[in-house]
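Batch manifest, entry 17 of 40.
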Amino acid sequence: MKYLLLVMIVGGLIAAQVGCHQARVIKTDEAKSTAAADSGAADGNDTDTQAIEPAVVGGGFLRAVCGSYVVFSESSPEYACGVYDGDKKSTDALVLHIELKANGTVTEVPFRTLSPAEAWQVSFSLPADLALQAVEGVSVVYSFADKTYRAPAAAVLSGTATTPDRTDNFTDFPTPKSLSYPLTQMSKSWQASFDGDPSLADLNGDGQKDWLVTRGQITSANFAGGILRNTGAVQLKSNPFVVNPKKVSVDFAMAHLVETTDPNAIGAELWYNVDYGNGSIGQVFCFLKRDGLGAQTASLYTKTLTNPRVLLTQVTGLPLGFVRFAFSLDVGPSRVMLKVNGNEYGPFTFSQMTFVDTGATVLDGRNSDAAFSYVLVGVEL
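Output type: structure tokens
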């Protein structure tokens, strides 16, 4: 099973942007017939007239973008095309088919949509007998506002797309050898590099499994290339639980994989429950969510009995793929410091409330499609 994430690569790598003057109207009946076909040869000598007017939305021209589709298997690269209005996805557009030009011939290739609601973007694989280097061009046929357009890409797929996970930092990061916020005394520690099921490991040698699956079911399908893919059903907690720590330090890397319109989706998430041992807890949450504009937003929250999300700080414009995080909790003064990709934020004050929960690090991805590269936790008692 392959796990996918659409990546729009810019800066001269593999983005193929299409200007409005390149769009060409094709006959509606032709579009319907070709869209219904799973695959087949397209007429490379088609002589339909150029579009008199391009697809226009709010005064801005639609464009097609082709690039790599992040996968966890470099041996099975995927590519993708989508229709955009500026930097925003054009959700009213419908991709009808994808055409590849290679060796002087234009071929229509089968494609997949993420969901019926995401028909503006599709992914596809190259035919088995077609080498990436032979691809001379890509065209996207899409419909918008009762017209159908063929938009030839301004650039071909780059050879760098054969390892698309490395074009957007979407590769397994090595687990740090030390914490970003060092502790004076390391009383307890946990780590997971996700080369396999962390709920089976005892890397700290305390005779107990380091991580508990507290929701959902974990299988080998959740792991590939040192990455944990969490589709929202699995929750992991560090084990054993900790009561009344002095300081907590956590390093981790996570990513929100797929855009979602689900209002309950949080994205990738990791939080720490401070158990004060007196029937009260403190909670600090790190969320990472795609923003619909080709970037991710990190949010640091705490929680009270009356407000489950008290925002402490937010970092916008983070690149797609894995983002490195680190936070430090000084439990006495209820102080938290945060690092995002090496940049530091804080200090902030987290809340304490009367509630019973276990003192642990929690990895989650509620109603989301998230991934984790590593987690490293240290506690000083």
